[in-house]
């Protein structure tokens, strides 16, 4: 796959992620896919490494908390070989009326046209203040 195809795969994955459509989103992931959310395990509900099933549960959790969907807007890309680094900004309104608006940096690794690895960097204090301390 080329860089443009990999970027489109990421956009398609996040389109389904944002809509809370776990079944469709997971089709863009390799069977052995993992998502590593940076943070000390246990301090945040999503810290650590999730397998493909865990990613599906994350999508459902986000949909439950943000029923109108989490908007994910790309603001920058860097790609080389089977790796794509992407910056995104998120926005969503939680069921309790709070607004979630977080910057992200993702590193994606591809295998045979599917997303194999996702590393996520974000403002963990914002996640804690919106989802944990609410």
TrEMBL record:
Top-rank taxon, per record: Bacteria
Residue ranges annotated for the SnoaL-like domain, each copy included: 12-117
Signal peptide residue numbers: none
Database matches in PANTHER family: BLR2505 PROTEIN
Protein name in the entry: SnoaL-like domain-containing protein
Source species of the chain: Olleya namhaensis
